[in-house]
């Protein structure tokens, strides 16, 4: 069985985000970029499934400009077998990404499509659900545990919900999105990082995949979160009640 994993290049989670002066987006020049953490978790799970003997190949795909190859090189260094770059300079919304993934699935014919539950740059949390709908495949979102049964061609997905744990049994092929607690991604070793630099990355375009990218969402303005007022210490319960009544007006 082949596993296809979608990965995204985003601003590193440790970087302090700065909004551009014209408020058209966030500053990405001279900013550290890395693979989306949830995508790393999805890739790690795919590698573990392959190592357990339930898959024969792990293929990673990323979409966007030339810089996307950085995330793909990282994935190859972690242990992915092949990498595909869907090259486009257009901003891709979740529906466009889902259509491109659907076309790639038709070409690669994987038994499992793994994604992070969301990207930390836009927090859309839509792509996995959308591509599952387009493919008409069963889906298991926010997976905190995945168990494959190769004989029955099923995947058991455990997911954390507000009321506790929910367990789903999916017939393969299926779409699974990873949550934070699914696993701890491995670090790429230096020899593998060096080897990944020389590996060939297949390049395709949306036109070659017969997908028309039409931006159906316009970002009007991006602003930083409003600054919060500093806290106030009170010396007594009476003073607290007075402030809640007269200042906060919640009583």
From TrEMBL:
GO terms for molecular function: electron transfer activity. Keywords: Electron transport, Mitochondrion, Transport. It is found in: Mitochondrion matrix. It comes from the Eukaryota. Pfam families: ETF. Residues 23-213 form the Electron transfer flavoprotein alpha/beta-subunit N-terminal domain. The keyword Electron transport applies. SUPFAM superfamilies: Adenine nucleotide alpha hydrolases-like. InterPro entries: ET-Flavoprotein_bsu_CS, ETF_a/b_N, ETF_b, ETF_beta_N, Rossmann-like_a/b/a_fold. One of its GO terms (cellular component) is mitochondrial matrix. One of its GO terms (biological process) is fatty acid beta-oxidation using acyl-CoA dehydrogenase. Transmembrane segments: none annotated. The electron transfer flavoprotein serves as a specific electron acceptor for several dehydrogenases, including five acyl-CoA dehydrogenases, glutaryl-CoA and sarcosine dehydrogenase. It transfers the electrons to the main mitochondrial respiratory chain via ETF-ubiquinone oxidoreductase (ETF dehydrogenase). Heterodimer of an alpha and a beta subunit. Belongs to the ETF beta-subunit/FixA family. This is Electron transfer flavoprotein subunit beta. The lineage of its organism: Eukaryota, Viridiplantae, Streptophyta, Embryophyta, Tracheophyta.
